[in-house]
Design a protein that fits this description.
heterodimer; A: alpha+beta; three-stranded mixed beta sheet; 10 helices; 12 strands; B: mainly alpha; two-stranded antiparallel sheet; 2 strands; disordered N terminus
Chain lengths: 328, 632
Amino acid sequence: MSNTSLRRAALLAGASLLLAGCGGKQSVLDPHSKPTHQIVHLWWGMLAAAGVVFGGLLVLLFIAWLRRNREGLPVLGKDEGVSTAMVVGFGIVIPVLALSVLFWVSDLEVGKTVEAPAAGSGQMQLTVIGHQWWWEARYPGTAAVTANEIHIPTNTRIDVLLESTDVIHSFWVPALNKKVDTVPGHPNHMLLYADRAGVFRGQCAEFCGLQHANMSLEVVAQPPAQFRAWLANEARPAAAPPSPEFMSEQCASCHTIRGTPARGTIGPDLTHVGSRRTLAGLTIPNDPAHLSQWIANPQSVKPGARMPGLGLSPQDVRTLVTFLEGLR
Amino acid sequence: MASVAQPAATVERLEQIWAERPGVLGWLTTTDHKRIGLLYLFTSLVFFAAGGVEALLIRTQLLQPDNNVLSPAAFNQVMTMHGVTMIFLFVIPISTGAFGNYLIPLMIGARDMAFPRLNALSFWLFAGSGIFMYTGLALGNGPNAGWFDYVPLASRQFSPGQGIDFYALGLIFNSVSTTAAAINFIVTIFKLRAPGMSINRMPLFAFAFLAVSFALVFALPALTTDLVFLELDRRLGFHFFDPSHGGDVLLWQHLFWLFGHPEVYIIILPAFGIATSIIPTFTRRRMVAFPMVALAEILVVFIGFGVWVHHMFASGLSNAVLIWFAAASLMVVIPSAIQIFAWLTTMVSGRPRFHTPLLWIVGFIVFFILGGLSGIMFAAVPFDQQLTDTYFVVAHFHFIIFGAAVFPLLGGLYYWFPKVTGRMYHEGYGKLSFWLAFVGTAVTFFPMHIVGLFGMPRRVYTYPSGLGWQGYNLVESIGAYILAAGLLLVVANLAVSLFRGAPASANPFGGATLEWSTSSPPPEFNYAVIPRVTSAYPMWDEEDRREDARALARGERVLERGHETPASTVLDADWDEVLDMPSNSPWPVTLALATSAGFAFLIGGHLTAVAVCVAVVVAALVAWHWKEPQEA
C-alpha cells in the first residue's frame, strides 16, 4: 500500500507526470480494478494447479529414468490393468473434474465480472477510436476530444464504445481490464474502471501494420473533481488563434484545433496538445525538442506514420512548436 | 532378420521391374514414395533453414529496446514469412510429406502409395508454392500482415503491394498439394495394408496420419474459400470483407480459424505418431492403452473442429458464444491427457533406454505438457482476453509447435536415419544436439510467458525500455542462438554419419513395426515378399517373419509379374486384389511447373502467359491419363 500512496502523492504533485515520460508500467500482474484483480487471482490459481500437474509428470519421468537399462524385457499381463487404470484415472477422470471446476470458476463466475456494463448501466460514456497508429478518445456530451492520453475519473464504471476507422486494433490497458478489439463494422463495448488514481499504460494488442509497436496510450485516472476540471478545460476551444504557419503548411488539412478554421480529421485533435505528456502514441515525450523533431521529420521518429515530412524551414518549425506547446 | 536367405532370382526380377531411372531425370520423374519422401525432406529442411534465419533476425531485432536491425517494413515481412514458412513449408511438408511418405507404405507393408503420380504432383506443387511465396519476399514484396492475415489490414486499401497476393495465391496452390497428399494417405492406409493388418493392428503412427489426413481434407476448404474471397476482394473489387458494402471482417477470422485450429492438430498429430513409434521401441514394451490412444488421435481431430472461436475471444462476440467454445476447448484437452499418460505409463512400466531418439521424445513430453497447461489457461475466457496477442501466447504456441511438434520430428530423423541411409548416427553428438536444443528451446520460449504477463504484445518490431521487458528479451535471444547451434549439430551429425557412420542392420533398435523387417536402406520394391501380420507389433512376432521368409522361398506373395502391390479390405485387411502401380512419369512435374508459372504470371497480370500455362496444365492432364498406369 505504501507504494500506492507514494505514487498517488507523486501524481498529485504532478512531478511524476513530467518525469515519468513513458515510464508507466503495463503489467497484467498489477491490477487496479475488480475485473483485473479477479483475472490475476484466476491466473495464480491456474498456475498453482499447473505446477502440481507438471511436478507430478516430472516425477513420472524421473521414475522412468530410474528404471533405465534394467535387464530383460518388461513383464506384462498383470501390470497392464494397472497401467490402463492410470491412463483412465489421470488422463480422463481427474482432468474432467479439474477442467469442470476451471470452467465454472473462470467462464461462468469471473467471466461475468469482466463483461461490458449492460446497456445504459455505465456511470459515464467514453468513445475510443483506433486509428493507424494512434488512439482517439471522445467524451460524449462534451466537445472534448483527445489522443493517446485518456483521462478518467477513479472508482467510476465507464462504458467504453470501441470503434475503428481503418483496420482492427485492440484496446488494452492491462491494469484496468481485459483487451477488446476495435473491429470495423462491429462496435464493441467494454468496462473501464480504476480503483485508484494513477497513470496506466496500454498498447494496441492486435497487429495493425507498420507501427503496431508504437500505438500506445495512457489512461490517467484522477479523482472525480480533478477529472471534471480536466474535462472542462479539454472541452474548451483553443487558447490561441492558429498560427499562420499551421494554416498554410497543410497542418490544418489533417488536424483540428477547435475554435479555429483548422478542421482536419485525419490526425489527432490538437486543441490542447500542449497539455499532453507524450506524442505520436507514446513514441516520444512532449517537449519542445522532441516536438521539433517530430514536425521536421516525422518519418525518422515513427517510420510509416501517416504524418508526412513537409520540408519546413527551421524557423517555421520553431514557430509551430511555440504555438503548439501553448495549446494547453 | 534381414539376412534370411532370399531366393536370388526372384529378388533380381523384382529389382528389374522396380528399377528407378538414374540421374536427375530419375528424381524429376520419380513416383517412388521413398524418393518423394526424401525430396520432401530436403526441400522442407531448406525452408526450415529459411524460417530459422527469419526467427534469428526477429530475435536479433528484439534483443534490446529500440533496436534497428530491421526496419518496421522488413520486420513485418520477416515475421509473416517466419510463420507461413514454419507452418506451411516446413512442419506439414516434413511430417506428412517426408515422414508419412517414406514410412507409411513401409509400415503397412505396401510397395508404394496408392496414387504414386499424384504423390509426385503433391511434392512438386508444394515446392512450387514455397518458391512462389519466397519470390515475393525476394522482390521486397513479401506477405506482411502476419500469418493469419487479418482483414481489413490485408485488404487492397491497407496493403496495396503484392505481398498479400503472393500469400493468398501461394497458399491456394499449396492447399491443392496438401489436399492431394491427404487423399493419397487415406486411400493408402485404408486399402494397401498388408494382409492381416486389420484396423486394430495398424500402427498408431498410421492412425495419426489417418486422422491428420481427414483433418486436412475437411479443414483446407475453409482456408481456400477464405483466400479466394480475399483475392476476389483485392483484385476484382468484391466486398466479402468490406463492412461499408455489407461485407464482414470477422468472416475472414471465422473461416481462417475454422481451418487454423484443426491445423494445430494437423501439426501435432504426426508428432504423436512418431512418439508412439519411438516409445515402444526404446522401452521394450507395447504401448499402454493402445485402443484408447488410437481413439484419442481420432477424437482430437473431431473435437478440434469445434474450438476455433477461442482464437477470437477478444473480438467482441457475445458471451454465450464464447462460453460454448470455451467448453469445447476444455473438452479437447482430454484426448491429449489420455495420450500423455499412455506415453508416461508406457515408459514407467517399461525398461526405457534413453538413446537419442527417446531423449527427443522426453523433451517433446515436457514441452507438450508445458504448452498444454498454458493452453488450458486460454480456455478460461477472461484470462484469454487478458493475455491473448501477448508474448504469453507466443510462448504457449512455440512450446506446442516447436517443442512438441518439431522435437519428435528431430527424434524421428535420428530414429529412422539408419533405416533410410543404412548407417548409424553418432550417439554422443546426438545426445549433445538434443541437450542444446532442449536448453535453447526452454531459454528462448519460457521467458516469453513472463514478458507476456508484463504486458508485451506480440508482433511488435520494437519496444521501449523501462517496462521491465529488456532483460527477458535478451535472454530469449541468447536462447535462440543456443537452439540454432543444437539444430545445426543435428544436421552436422546426420550429414557426417551419412558418409562415416557405422553400417546399420535392418533393425538396429529392435523396433516393432514392419519397416524394420526390410533391409536398410530398403530396396525400391520395399518387400520381396508381402508380409502377413497377426498383431500390432509384427517385428516382435518372430514366427510370423520366419513364415514370410518361407513364403518367399516358395515364391508366394511375391508379385514378381509386374509393377504390383496388393490391396486389402478396409477393416479386416484380407487380401483383396493385386494393383498395377504406375512407375516414372514426367507429367506430375510438368503439371506442377505449369501451375506455379501460371500463378506467377497471374500476379504479374500477364493473362496471355496465364492462358498458355493453363493449356500446358490441360495437356499434361490428358497425357497423364492417356496410358494405363503400368505402361506409363
